[in-house]
Every structure is written in structure tokens, then in C-alpha cells.
Amino acid sequence: MNQTTVKNNIYEIFGKNGWEDFDGIVKTENNNIPLIDIFVNNENESIISCTPDHILYNEFDAKIRADFLKIGDLVKTKIGLKKISNLKQSNTNKVFDIINSDSHKIYSSKQTKTNNSILTHQCDEFAFVPGFQAEEFWAANYPTISASKQAKIIIISTPNGLFNIYHRIWSQAVNKLNTFHPTEVSWQEVPGRDQEWADEQLANLGEQKFNQEFAVKFIGSTSTLLNGETIKFLLKAWKNPVKRDLQDKLKIWKDPEEGCSYILGVDPAKGTGENWSVIQVLKIEKINPVKMEQVAVFRDNLTDVYTFAEICNRLSLYYNHAHIMCENNGEGSAVVQRIWWDHENENLVNSGSKEANLGIRSTRTTKPKAVLFMKKLIEDGCIKIFDKDTIEELGSYIEDNGKFFGKDKPDDLVSALFWGIYILEMDVLDESYGFIVKEESNDAWGILTDVNDGEMEEDWDWLNNSNVFD
Q1: Full residue range of the structural domain in which residue 386 is found
Q2: Is residue 128 in a domain?
């Protein structure tokens, strides 16, 4: 096999996202490289000749390998959808691959026969493939490659945060839990690079990019909400639950203790198998200074809202009539309605005195406050977290352009956690663990807060001046 690389800094290539830069072209020469010629609309000339593993798009914008196509399928081209009228197999003695185009980096792979007849499969910068696309790519390609006893898979990437598929494969390889062989090359191993060079790159790129591109560090290589040291600490502190209940959906680290106060942070979902319905049970040890710990977690994506509301109510009663901080957006509205009216649980924390204010509303004001308040308390060591799934979601939770979300994992455990913690900012608890019940007019509305979404201002002084840190 003979390969030639031509670098490019002039031309662009038309990809999935329009015209894109690319670094160059690799020409591979060998005898009898298999190709598939794709013809459309009964035309005599093929629109493309490609290797069997080349990726195309169908009418649903889903990826499909060339060797999975059949006559009659629709494929996307630059000028629109085209129906495949014929497929032919042929051979060539050379093929060309694009280097580092955004579309090709994500969607294409390369197969070649080496001189010793070992089939290799390479995926460059795998850690940067978006989570669901990486999983699809891996699921589609791995079975085909592994079917050959001579197949070898080579994955090359710099780190891009924790808990994505690349981090999972790497971690399993390091711990000898799969058959991959991990090889790490840091900047110190490159001839001509010394500490002076590293200091210069660190100053130019910043710590995050330097750790990602040169230091081979998974932690601190993406814009995680929590700092790297905190994530490291959390990863070392996780514990297995002492018992499980509700068909393993409920994990318990500590049962309720007499005289102790608890809070339920709740993030509801529809129960249709997509997002997760989550309850975080937190024990309040001290208010001034804050000391809390995670004692139980419920998590399931198939529990309907009515059953979920009943579980919230029962857990509240079990944990010493714990107060409930439940998001009321979307399906959360049905959950808080049922907790309040059907179960008559007056420990539900409500954001106002009207029926529409049952539970806690996630808004552009309340969510950032709750998230950043959680960040401060966790990084200050005020909250003990034992659940490994919660820690992994925290390790993947990022801030991007003012939005907070899970980058490579769901974020429902995090959402329930920050709503549970947010009770400390809502003037519901006093310093002796007692509970303040506010009254408005003559309405007996249970637990009320001074939160009013319509009157909130963008004032961030609370983060540094909060009385819970006095």
C-alpha cells in the first residue's frame, strides 16, 4: 500500500454543513480496492464511486453505509434527493480521503488493506463526535469490523471531557476491561518541546485547551460547570447504595433519622422512555454553614406522572415529611397538582399564592440562579454526593452561551439536585431546621416563598452575599 498526503489551505469542500475548510487529501494506492458505484434516476453515469463503508444520507437525514443501500432508496445530494436506480460493484487501484473536514471528521471512516493484509479501521478525533452520533457510528461500524478475525480498530483522539463514548472506551482499556490497548502521547514526549514551550502554549491557549490538546487530560478539557478538582474529588467519593427498592429504581444510602430534616428535589418527565423522572433526597445537616448530603435517589424513564407523584408523596412522608421542590414546567404541572390536591401534601414548596404557582417554575432567571448556587455549594464542599450516576452527569454538565445542559449525558439528575438545593435560597428554612410558613391574605396555602418570576431582576449579588454563607 502506498499513501501520499497533499496539504490544503486554499480550497473548501461542500459537506453536510455547507462549504467547509479541510486540511488536505490522502491518496491510497493498492491493487483491487473494492468500490460501489451508485447510479440515480436511470442515469448512465454514477453520482459517486465509494468504498463500502462510505456514509451517505437518506431522506430522513439518517446516516447509511454505501453497502447497506438498495435500489429504490433515496439519498441526499448537493442538488436534492435522488432515487437509486442501480448499484454496481467495481475495483480500483487508488482511493482518496479528506483530512479533517468537519463533516468527514464526524461521518466518514477509512478502510484500507495494509501490506500484511490486516484490515484497519480508523476514526480520527472520535471524542469530538456529538454523543448520539458517536453511539450510532460505533453501533453501526463495530459489528462489521469485528466480524473479521484479522480486523484491527485504531481510534485516535485528544480528550474532550468525561463520560462520552471515547472516554468510556479509553477508561475500560486502561482498566483492562476491553481488548483495546491504550497509548498516550503527551507534549513532553515530542522532541523539541520543553517547559518554556509549554508555558507559552498555556498562556496562548488557556488551561482548558492546553489540557485538551497537549496534556492528554480528560478532566478540565471541556467547559464543565464544576471545576476539574471538584470532579476528581467527587469521582473518588462515590459509594454503592446500601439498599435498593422499587425494582432498583430507588437507591438508598441512608434511611431517615429521627429529628432530621430532608428535602426532595424533583424533576418530572412524561414516562415514555425518553427523559428521566428523578427525585433527589437530601438530608439537611446544618443551615449556617450549609451542610447537606445525598441519602436517596429515584430515577426512571417509564414511570407515568400519576405514579411518580405518588412516589414523591410517599418518599416525602418516609423522610420525616420532607419538603418537596418540584419543577412545574410541562409534565411537572400534572405532578405538582396531584401532590397538592390529591395527596394533600402541604410540604410542597410553592412559588406563589395562586394555583398556577404550585411547585417551582424553571425560567431564564430561576434556573441559572439554582445552577450556580449548586455549583458554589458543591465546590465549597458543603454537599456530599454518593451516587455515581449523579456524579457522571455533573461531570458532563456544561455552560454554553448562558445555557446549562448535559453535553454527553442526560441532565435530569442534575436538575433534581439543583432544585433540591435551591430551597436554601427561598426563605423556607430557618437556622434551627424549622420551617417558615408565610401567609398571604387569609388563604391557607401551605409553604410559600418570596419568589415571583415576574418581579425578578438580573441581580447576581445573591451569589456572594447569600446569608447561608455567613
Answers
A1: 228-469
A2: no
Look at the alpha carbons of 91, 97, 102, 105 in this order and tell me if their dihedral is positive or negative. positive
Q: How many CB atoms lie within 10 A of CB 390?
A: 23
Dihedral sign for Cα atoms in the order 416, 420, 421, 426 = positive
Show the DSSP H helices in 116-260 as ranges: 131-146, 165-174, 195-205, 207-213, 228-237
What would the 3-class secondary structure string for 443-469 be? ECCCCECCCCHHHCCCCCCHHHHCHHH
Around Cβ 187, how many Cβ atoms within 10 Å?
Answer: 15
Residue 410 falls inside a structural domain: yes
What is the distance, to the nearest Å, from the Cα of residue 171 to the centroid of all Cα atoms in its chain? 17
Q: What element of type H or E holds 400?
A: strand 397-400
Q: Which of 122-126, 287-291, 439-443 has the lowest mean pLDDT?
A: 439-443
Q: pTM, whole model, 2 decimals?
A: 0.57
- Exposed / middle / buried, residue 94 (Cβ in 10 Å: 0-12, 13-18, 19+): exposed
Per the structure block, which three cell numbers stand in for 161?
Answer: 471531557
Position 249 in a domain: yes
Distance, CA of 89 to CA of 235 (rounded, Å) = 51
pLDDT band at 433 (very low <50, low <70, confident <90, very high): very low
Q: What CATH number does residue 301 fall under?
A: 3.30.420.240
Q: Could you read off the pLDDT of 93-137 as tens digits, one per residue?
A: 888 777 765 444 433 334 444 433 344 444 556 656 665 566 666
For residues 257 and 411, give the distance between their C-alpha atoms in angstroms, rounded to a whole number: 29
Cβ count within 10 A of residue 98: 19
pLDDT of residue 15: 61
Secondary structure element (H or E) that encloses residue 305, with its range: helix 305-318
Residue 136 CB-density burial (10 A; 0-12 exposed, 13-18 middle, 19+ buried): middle
- 304 domain-assigned: yes
User: How many structural domains comprise the chain?
Assistant: 1
Closest CA to 373 of 309, 293, 460: 460
Phi-psi region of 5 (alpha: psi -120 to 50; beta: other; left: phi over 0): beta
Contacts of residue 139, Cβ cutoff 8 Å, sequence gap at least 6: none
